[in-house]
Every structure is written in structure tokens, then in C-alpha cells.
């Protein structure tokens, strides 16, 4: 459930072909250029293959090695033992069932909340929209790991203020360490991404469609059921499919909330098999599960792309923009606004406040005025003085900076290849979409195997994490940049060329300055997301390259040092909020 | 802006007012002010005006899609909206049907389902068989029978417009509201659908309120035209009235083309006066057509003389015979249009557009006589 932007690569703007054709007309087909283009495409292909295919290949290879507790390549011969093993164990059924419940629950919850919010904010006269709408999007700035920690603190049955409040007022016990708990947190976490996909669909839906139904005599319920929802359905299904893929790979939330009671979904089970709390890692089983997860993800991605490809079938074109008259809520106005505010309060404000509160306390205690005196910044000062923690902070920053820079650079290159690199470039760009289907746990595992296998000395350094994270963010980064390239009017380049500029000059003076904002936005987006990315950092961590999220994981899971963990989480949250705010400061944009 | 109180009226609006908060972009607000008119049963009334004049706002207030700040609306004697009583019947409960500007044809439904919507989910619902029969009959009327099973997105613009009309008529409305339904079509289609629309209206005898900015449409189709400008009603009248006796400079200029010459009233206009003499840059012009404003114009009061190009006769040579409104003029330019020549002549320094005989032999610079037919020369004080 990454925040910010979504890969809706299936919806490809029609203009692409136009751009392509125009570019081809303008460029004289010289041999030298063809060779250059070919070389560039080969280089891109080679890098993509190295980043994506190698690790996946090693993963497939390992899954056919009956390695159990040995490293896969120390075993000779191939066998299906891993697959027969997991298929015949009851664990698979349990994990599959948990995953199914988790994914479906998360999607349904996020769907209900985000469709209601998108409808309320875009089509009704709900008061306080200017404050409420951005508030509901706030989880976008919260890394999943931080979100999970905040919820652990806010809703743990022992002293979480939310759990206590519910117990006192409604009389039942909330256990956040359960499947419903995971669904609740992951669902809330999935709302902003979905809202951003749905809001434009509701906003752009031509008012006339609803008005035509109203003047035909249909009441609000009929209108909504027969006209508004069917017309927004393509967007709703596309967003749901995407959330299915994202929920399937979500790691931090199910892992942190499921671990205490041994509730595993696919992603957390892969990690548990690789890094069991006690005992030896089972590489064979982990890779077999990984393969299963990739296949599942691939199917979902395929369904998603099919869905979005057909979405244009009834594209709802807005006519002349008559200012939308909002649906009048009448006497429901205030109650609904209160309900939405309550959602913001319970789902977002209270967990984050609890987190901040805990970070200021010496030990875990319920929020109360009495303990106000005991608050101090001690936890923060220990972060900066403890060499372990400060080392992790430096690692995190180095990794995020490097990842953001590499992704922005290679992403721009790939995006340029897709719009200017002819057929091969486009195919390569499309192929990079496959990375979306590799859950980050699996990607982490595959990269781990690869560098245990090949003699490149990156294992144990920050570089191995940088490589894995860059691979993960390249498809999204390149799509963010490609969108802005596609929006460039080809006329701008043609005019420059007609004025006598060489193609290099055109790139340097026209294309780059115009695409620069998108590149910097991509950089920031990757930076924000790399900060909080847990599974890859966790699987690839060793003593020297531990990052803040990994420490956070350890503190919550093993040492249970909540106050210091909270301070770390708050720090992470602050860093990520600033960059997410920066990315979106000109309004939330839908890329790809 | 006469107030008519009679149960014979299908729609009555009094003192309707709607204000919009000024927008940041400096966009002109589309508010309306003191809009009052009544539509007799089965009549075709057109709200005519430039964009932003408030005609669409008026229509949307009638449909209940927009809530006015002041005034009342009643349909067939039943109150629909009253700002004072806080009464506001929602669109789905008003006895109306509407064809929106871009038709509002639902793209996720087949043609048949679009048309059947009001019979299935509308004010009065019908059995399946009855719906089927009525919808097919209506599609037959508008010539869309063979398209019933197609997706509505496969229809052309003109077909969509007919489908929207069919759907509206299936609502069995007492009042049919049409919001510039022809504006999205090309010119040729527009004129044929114009006639079609009018014949449907007459066949079904439904009271119709039609919004347009196209004066040609308004003149061709309406029983009554309400000309609006900047949120206010400029004039209400039959197409003849509006064209021949515009009540204001705006109406004269907006409907058809008109020469407007500023001047002053020569002598005070008494209650029984039939003629106004106006002193202008052209000379003294005799106007036999005018509507006296509430306060009788006094001598020296500013006015405009309005004359349409077709009412100016252009004769070669200098004025020979004596008569009113004969002025010596010079041809400035001429355009040959086959059936006539459109010429611009200058009388003194004042240019006047005129329709001259196609075979008038006059070149730019030639001296001619411009005769302004006094019967069709209009004095305007507003």
C-alpha cells in the first residue's frame, strides 16, 4: 500500500501513438541514429534484465532445489520437493485462507470508505471539505511500518487508548493482533491511494447524466444506483484490482500485527521462513512460497490491465463545464460531516497522536494528564547519541538518497526510450511493468539469493538494498516521468527543430526543462517511499546496513522498547511527510 | 414584464432572483434578477440571450436543479418553488422533462434502456409489457426503432438528440425544458432538427421552454420569445414583435442586425404621439415605430434610431424627390450575394448597412440616396 501515485499503466493515453508518429516524421532515418538508438535500447534492456530477470531466475532456480536449511546452490540436482512439500502441508491452506480474508477484507473496507469519501467530497455539499478532504489523505505520508506501530500503540488491548475507549463505551475488547485488526489498519491505509483514483472519476462525471435522471423523475437512490455508480464502476473496479495486488504484497501491517498470534499471510510467511525468530531459515520453502506469490500477483496484474484497457469503452466525457451543483445533503449535512470527522479522528489523528505521545514518555503508559510531567525528549536524544541508532539513520538516508537518484535517472532514461525509442523502447517500457507483480518480500528474497550466488561483493552493504529498492521503484518512477513526456506537445519539439536546433539541443533546451518538474517529483516520491520500505530492508539487512525501519521492526518484535521505537517512527514520519507534502504541494496528481 | 395571473398558464415565474458569489477567475456571474413571465398551455417559449445572460440558470431553476434566492415558480397552478415559504419541490417530483445541453444520454445503457428509464424509475412506472410498447412506439416516432438494441454511444449527435427528446417525452411532462439542444450539432443538421423539434412539440402539445443563444432558432420556432441580458429580461414578445419592434438597443442588436444611430429627441413625445422626430448625425429622422417608455420622453432626451438593413433602400444618384428620411449618401463598400448586395453607405460620417438590389450599379465612392422607410424606423430610449 504505497502512497502517492498508482501504476495505472494499463490506461495508456491515446496520444502516445500520435507522438510516436510525429517524432518519426520529423527525424530523418539516418543509419548512425538507428545504431545509436539500438545501442541505447540494448543498454536499457541489459540493465532491466540484470535488475529483474536475474533475481527472478535465481529465485526459480532455488525453488527447484531441495535445499531446506542449506543455501540453494549448495544442493545438487533439481526436484519438486519444495512445491510438493508446501502443497501437502496444512500451512499452505491456512496461509492462503488468511491471505484471502486479509486481501478481500482490506479491499472491501478501503473501497467502502474511499467510495463514500470520494462521493461526499466530489458530489455533495458536505461542509468542511477543505479541511476534511486533505485529512483523509494524510495516511499517504505515513510509511506502512509507522502506521502499524502507531496502531499497535493506539489499539493494543493492554493500554491502547482506542482499545480502552471502545471497551469502556461499547463494552467489547478490541484485539488489534488479529485478522480483523490487520484488515482495519490495512484498509484505512489503502483509502488515500484509492480515493485519489476515484475522486477524479466522481468529479469528472458529467453532471448532466445525473440531472437527466433527476428530471426523468428518479430519486437520489435510483440515480445513484442506476447512473452514478455504473458510470464510475470502471474506475472503482480498476482501483480495487490494484488494491488487491497491493494488499497481497503488503508486509509491515500483517507482519507486525499478526506475529504475536502467529497469524501469517503469504508475504509475512515468506519472511518468517527466511528469518525465523528461532531456528534456521528454510530457503527452499521460502522460494516456493515466493513463486506462488508472484504467480498470484501476476494473475491479478493481468486482470487489472485487462480491466483498465476496457475502461475507455464508456469513457464519460464531460461536456461544456457547467459548474457542478452539489447533491444537497439537507438535514444529513451535519451528521455526515461529524461522521467523517470522527473517522479522521479515530483512524488517523488518535494513532498518530498516541505515537507522538509514546515517543515522549519514558515507558509505555496510557495517555493521561498526570503523566504530562514525565514527558521529555530523552528518547530522541538517545537516537542521536546511540551509535547503533545514528548509524541506522545515516544508512536510511544514504539508501533513500541513492535509490531516489538512481531511480529518477534510470526512470527518465526508460521513459525517454518509451516515447522516443521506437518499438523496442516501448516494449522494454511495457516489460518493466512486470516488476509491479513482484511483491517486495519476494524481490528482497530474490536479490538476496542472487548476491549470495554471484560473486559481487554487495551483500551486507547498503548497495544491495539500493539495488533492490531501485528495481522496485523503476516501473513507477518511469511511468511518472513518461506521463509528463506524453503530455508534451510534439509541436514544441518540432518548432525547436524547425528553428534549426540539433536534436541534442532540443533535448537539452526544450525537453529536459519541461520534464524536470516530473523528474524531481519522482525523486521525492521514491525518497519518501524508500524511507519506510520494510520487507526489502529487512530481508537484506545484516549487521552493517541496518536501517531505521529494520530497527523499528526489531524493537517492536523483540525488545519491545516502545518509547524509543516511537521516537524513531516519529522521525521517519516527519521525513516522509515533508517529502510527500513536497511531492503533492501543487495538488494531488494522478500519474500514469 | 407584465404579470399575468391566470390558471390557463402552464408555468408562471415571478420575481425570480439568483445570485452567485463572484468567482476568483473574474468569470461573469450567471445570476438572474427579477425574472417574471408566464407560459400559456401548449406554448413554445424561448429564452434567448448571449452566454452568461442567465437563461440557462432560469431553466435550471425551473427544473429544480438550481435553487433561486427569491421569487416563486408554479406549474399548472401548483407551487413548485417559493423562497418566502421555503418551498422547493425536488426535480424528480416536478411535472417536467428536460433535454440537457449535451443530451445526458447514459453511455452504460442501450438506446432502449435510455428511453425506458422514466417508465421504469420515473414518476409513474409501468408494467414491463406497457413499457416495451410505449418505448418502441416513441422510438418509432423519432426514427430510432432499428437502433433500440445498440449502445447509446454508437449514436450520432443528431440521433442522440432525438433519443434525449424521446426520453423526455416518455416522461409525459407537463412542461418540457430544452437547454440549447441544438448547439452541439453542425449547421445543416441543426436546421432540419429545428423543424422536427417544433413539429414534435406541436404534435404532443406539450408546453415547452427552450433555451438558446441562436436568434434564428428563436425566431423560427417560438410562439413567444423572452430576450434576456445580464440576468434581466429585456423584452417579451412574439417573434414578430421582437424583430420588428425591439424594445431596447440590446434586443435590436442581438436579434437580427440593426443600424443604431445615436441622437436626441427633437420634440417631446406626448401620450398620443404616432411619430418621433430624432435629430442625429445623419439628419432629422422620422420614426413611426416606437414604444413610449413609462416617463414620456422630453425634447432633447437622448435616443437611438434603429433601422434594419433590409429597410434601407439604396437608390443611385442624388435625392430627387422630396420625402421623409431621404439622405444623400456615398457607397463605402459592397458585397455581392447573388440575391442582393450588402452595401455599407456613409451618410455624412455615419456608416449604415443596407441591402441593395442585386443589380444596383454602384461602386465604392459613388453617390447614392439612402431611404430609411419611416414605418420601419424605430426610436429607442433604452
Automatic annotation (TrEMBL), chain A:
It is found in: Cell inner membrane; Cell membrane. InterPro entries: MetI-like, MetI-like_sf. It holds the Pfam family BPD_transp_1. Keywords: Cell inner membrane, Cell membrane, Membrane, Transmembrane, Transmembrane helix, Transport. The chain crosses the membrane at residues 36-61, 100-120, 132-154, 174-198, 227-248, 286-304, 336-360, 392-416, 428-452, 458-475, 562-583. Its main location: membrane. It is a multi-pass membrane protein. SUPFAM superfamilies: MetI-like. Residues 96-304, 393-583 form the ABC transmembrane type-1 domain. Residues 1-27 are annotated as: Disordered. Belongs to the binding-protein-dependent transport system permease family. This is Iron ABC transporter permease.
